Amino acid sequence: MTTHAVVVGAGVGGLSAAIHLARRGMRVTVVEKNRGPGGRLGQFTRDGHTFSTGPTLLIMPLLYRSEFAHLGVDMDAALESQRVDPTYDVVFDDGARLAMTSDLTSMRTQLEAMERGAFGGFLRYIEEGRKHYELGMPRLVDRDFRRLTDFATPANAVLALRIKALLPHYRHMSRFFDSPRLRAAFTYQDVYMGLSPFSAPSTFSLTPFSELAHGVWYPKGGMYRIVEVLAALAEEVGVQFVYDEPVRRIDIEGGRASGVVLGNAALGDGRTGVETTLPADVVVANADLPYVYRRLLPDAAAARALGRKKFSGSTISFYWGLDRVYPELRPHTLFLGDAYRDNFDRIERNRPLPDGPSVYVHAPTRLDPGTAPAGKDTLIAVVPTGHMPYDGDDPDLMAREEDAWVAETERARAAVFARLAQVGLDDVADHITVEATASPPTWKAHHNLERGATHGLAHTLFQLAYLRPHNRHARYRNLYFAGASTHPGTGVPTALVSGRLAAERIADDLGL
After folding, report:
1. Alpha-carbon span 353 to 356, nearest angstrom
2. Strand-pair category, 247-253 with 256-262
3. Rounded-to-integer distance, Cα 284 and Cα 213, Å
4. Which residues in 122-202 belong to E strands, given as ranges?
5. Which of 27, 261, 353, 400 has a C-alpha 20 to 30 A away from that of 426?
6. What is the DSSP letter of 35?
7. What phi and psi values does residue 105 have, to the nearest 5 degrees?
8. What is the pLDDT of residues 90-133, one digit of tens each?
């Protein structure tokens, strides 16, 4: 009889796992609480404006290409991506700018204007990032750590020193730049992992290296094109999808996962609210891992242990359709405040935003005119924040928490307008015809993210590699995990890796 695998969640990690398992001959059903696939890599359209709700740029293309090849897909042909260069414009408090580009002549001119000798520091920094990338990616990201002995080896101890895993990223930048602004411009990328540059390992210099050396890209149609390609491939290999169907719990019988319990009765007799059990030989949970333990499993002690780990920050995001075009904005603009440390300290401590927070603005119509009607513009503004301090079951405390985020969202909105005014765009608010927002409570409600933490568990030194939650349950040996809070961690390309590693472990366990 064919082995039946049920995947909980149609995020990128779940899609990856489902495809790999189906290609190994398993019958696979993906159950998703929302109306379509993608998870945090989402998209919606309103009045002709198309908005990405997750990542807006494709970084680390070599990792993407490798993972697509594992799936039997030619990434370049499937995504038809265009390179974005400059990757983004950095704007500082006084209006000074730095265009992050792979054009070394341009970088030399810009950097030397900001700090004498800075171009030499830049070359040394990028070279170090190259070493970190070439050492760290194959040995820490593209492999599974199933046993402590896979991780705690003399070779890995030496590796940790070589990739400077014990040295905070921002502090290490003093070796390359004197200017606080340049240190900020080349460490802000740590926010991609939900980290503060003041606590992130210096290992993550591999990210700005990859951005400049391998490029930042934009798939035709936007980042959601990745989801469309994966979902189509999954259907092609026989994966079945059940959408708009929340999973109530994962059933455990005799120390094994026996299936998942659904709440909307989509597979039952059609009566809303009737629980239906979907039997499974194998379960892969792609939902947010802390949520899985807290809400879907009878593992109160394990859930409490996960709850004590460090969670990533979150974001307040604005989605605006405008009745005019602002050609002054390039595809990606990053406003970095001079109070850089205070900004990230507040994020890490889940404190209110500073008066001048860092802001990222994406103008997708510069790359894809189809994201807005003719003569109009689409903007996405993202303000990094802390996560929800309270995420419990007391309705009064939760209501108070949500009210606090309504007020914080208004402050963030005003901060975005103030940042845009820095570059002469002081009338954006007057031209908004479409508006949607998302804050930590939104991320929690829509994606079941504990505390509304957009990147799941943080990528601290003691939550990486073997020290990050593993992709198989310690006791329920047919329950596996894929996604941001499992190894290798958050991000779209690492989610692809996570799904593949989970599928490989299942195959090894079943002897496939």
Report:
1. 8
2. antiparallel
3. 35
4. none
5. 353
6. S
7. -65, -45
8. 999 999 999 999 999 999 999 999 999 999 999 999 999 999 99
